[in-house]
Amino acid sequence: MDENSKEAISTSYWHDLQSQINAKKIEELKLRYPDKFAPENDIFSRINRGDKIFISTGCGEPQYLVNALVEYVNSHPKAFFDAEVFHVWTLGVAPYTDQKFKYNFRHNSFFIGDNTRNAVNEGIADYTPIFLSEVPGLIRRGIVPIDVALVQASLPDKHGYMSLGVSVDIDMAAIEKATTVIVQINPQMPRTHGDGFIHIKDVDFIVPFDEPLLEFNAGVDSEIIQRIGSYVARLIQDGDTIQVGYGSIPDAILSNLNDKRNLGVHTELIGDGIVELMRKGIIDNSRKTVNPGRSVAAFCMGKRETYEYLHDNPMVEFRTIDYTNNPLIIAQHENMTAINSALEIDLTGQASAESIGKIFYSGIGGQADFMRGAVLSRNGKTILALQSTASDDTVSRIVPFLKEGAGVTLNRGDIHYVITEYGIVYLHGKNIRERAMELISIAHPKFRPWLIEEAKKNGLIYKDQSYIPGKRGEYPESLEGYRTTKTGLDIYLRPVKISDEPLLKDFFYSLSDKSMYRRFMSQRKDMPHERLQDFAVIDYTKEMIILAVVDRKHKEKIVGIGQYGIDETKHSAEAAFAVRDDYQNMGISTELIVYLTFLAKRQGLLGFTAEVFVENKPMLRVFEKMGFDLQRRVESGVYELRMAFKE
Q1: Is residue 397 within 8 Å of residue 387, measured between CB atoms?
Q2: Which residues are the active-site residues?
């Protein structure tokens, strides 16, 4: 017998043994609490016409109970009518939305899932838009009354306490207020720490049933999604407390955090990615300002291995959703980073995560709570990460304005960073024109000309805003890189972007009159939009502009600019550079020329030409020490330099 066969027999043996132990526990419970164990038909006969029925969230859904209830109605079609089923989000079974039960059930969801979306949009089920943090309050105040609660829990411990396991969120409020509480006890439900304990004395009926919990698959990964994840990872710092949503993009984000340290978690949802980082010690919650040492969540959706990790693990606490999602609680976390996604964002910065135009798709959920809380947090930041397109690149997720009927889930003031596979932009504190240009710069290239024209038409940007379509105008991200100058200054060298006009304006107006004169050989001191466009919008195949920037927290500052324009007849390029007066003599100009030379050689150019005032000794020295085969000619106080590259 091979090792695999032995292991299979061993696993089967222990499973059978555990099943026998669980069966014995249940028999003991029946003897101790006989009134709580009744035939299912008797239990469901307690439901009256018009009752409000609550069902646990997501992977905590009591599948057997739900199916048993529907079977009861199927065999007793006149048992009750117009019962309203409340659900935050159903991941698994939702047979009560079937048309044949329309006189028995009416579904009302606080968050729309795949299994209920069609019913909601066809008008045979309801959707209640609300911040998830407020749902328990609605229940406790009787605004949303609950008559019957169908929940799932672990087996009771020796003290009689059952754990709600992976779904604490709304369940506690529903259990507290429901007239009748029906619990499916399931040995496969993990016993989790936190708010989710209920005593067997406080429930009305127990229905034992052993079945695997629902599992959540985040979806297909891809190179694009991984690129988005890598961008988000750049913004997460050691010691940050993070919140992430669900799906393939959050999973990609978490998979890119392996080089981080001392991360904390305060979120509504815990999934496989967070647990994996906890296993690796990357998430240790050691620097959290609230609930240090604990990952805090309201519910879990993941794989079986994740549920096993959560079982009796004191490093994870499940709290009610009016705690986890309370913006005032979230704001108490220093360095809170809220990471969410959206279906669509418009050029003004407002986003919808709940509907596609008039089609209800998901719900407000908890992201608005977390984005608001993170904005209020000390050193907090909000990140909206989304793929630039949908429907196989036929639809842009970045649009001029949200579609008619779309719900504004996130307003313009709560979004700091927006990320697509084309880069990172920062919107906080920027005007509408700046926001529009930033968002256009990370839209899918094929939609950028359309967005430019729509933005012009609607007065969001300059009417004469130029744009270079296609590969010629596509930002060459691969040319970005960090450098440390000879004086120890850390700078970031990157090509100019179409959205850089405001930064360029600040840079040029920071130059002294002398520096402006040396750079442009002109007494002209203004730098209007028309001139700035020549620097911000370029054909990367014919010229190159490299910016030296330093990051002043959230807003970059240009401290130097280097450029060359190709002369195709001579297969060389005219070069120039300028450095802010307060950053001169720090080695920035040398780094710019070294990098421009590298790029020019890579394009096969033979050398540079330049015009330099005779009195501009600093610029002349930069060119001289590059080791070019340099020729100079003086005319009217100006050196005309020809600099051939050496092999």
Answers
A1: yes
A2: 268
